[in-house]
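pasting for ref. prot 1 ->
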Amino acid sequence: MKLQRPMLWSAALLMVAASTILTFAQSAATLPADVNPDSRARLPYIQRSSLSEADQKIFDVLPGRTPAGTLGGPLAFAAYNPGVAKALFDLHNAAVAPGPLNAHVRELAILVACRETNYSLEWNGHEATALRSGVEQKVIDIVRQNGPLTGVNEADAAVIRFGRQLYTDRKVDSATFAKIVELYGQRGAMDMVAVMNTYAVSGFFGIAVNEQAAVGKTSLEKK
């Protein structure tokens, strides 16, 4: 038995390695021809070493840095212009700072913006946070599926309707805006625009480079 144990371990390791290779191969095979297999987008991740000294200083304060010296995450492609990425990071920090919108409302607004821009990366990052913040699973499912707002409470329905009108209709009607102001105040209404837009802008970068969801993660169907 003792002599067989190393052989069993070797066989197990070979099976794991084969499974990993197969998974990678299947993943790569499903990617569009112009998509980089590492970034899963039309552009590779930016390399810190390729930047000027001034831009490296900006790179060093952005989230998503890896030990290999690349930048992933929501600012990965905005960072081709590091100043733009830093401006978006600052916008994000200002938009989600404590104010009239509680965590429940912010997280729902983020999911709406991600859904409206097909932004799978941040959807996958925020769905669990939205649940922890009190957004019901049935509401999250309605947002994901672009479903009717039947049965959704008034406050959540107002946020979803507001985002859909902003990004799909490109026109917010008087009743929808009035309800948002009634529920969240004038500043709250504008904070909601800021929260949605900070995620939508990254979503638009994702659209441009055809960013694909990570293997095993939710991929939002195109609207």
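and prot 2 ->
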Amino acid sequence: MMRAQGRNLHDEFVRLLPEAPRPIAIQRWSTRRVVLLLAVVLALIPAIPLAWAFARSSTNPGGAAVVTGANGSCTQLEELWLEAQSVPSASRIPCVQAFPPGVVGALAVGNGESVLKLRHAGVDINIGTGGQPQAAAEAGSVTIRLTASCAQPTGNGEVIAPGVRRFRTQGPAGTRQVVDVFLGGCLTYQPDAGIGPSDPLLDQAQHAVFFRTREELRDALQRRSAGRLHLDPGGGS
């Protein structure tokens, strides 16, 4: 009946308003919207290896998930971020600054620890459940383990880097043990028992390991993600 009378209620109600409402833009794809979406995807790329590694390790609580292609190098930020998240209290994150000739590394991360294994090139080492080496008897390798704490060594130790103190002790059966202690973390170097090549490899491992600060890695992640990702979202140290 209203239409038959030629009346448009919508227009009449709009005229009664103090001012005309602003038109609502229809959400459509545009060049600007596509560019913004691509920028968000690129910013989230650093989170992909972190999420994948921890998804695999979560199926085995307390174990370690091997990070594909990871060798613990100080230039691989994604690996260092994984290590930092595996031990949220650690103020220093270990990495290998320069690999000794003929030595390669393999990194595994888990809930509460990261395991870096250095071995002589040409000898395969598999890191099994809990970060334990398999077929170690043929390898001659050194296991470098990052944890939140360890048995406190005796003595004063040696300052090898800002905030890092190293202790050297004799373990059972004459084996050598090396421990690096720093705020919120501990790094142990464990050579395979009874393996000749492990002794020089232990010395090489001590000289090869370098420490990056948690603050440095936190800032690098924020820069890489344009502030969208945080190393310690829960406010860790």
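The radius of gyration is 27 Å.
Residues 47-224 form one domain.
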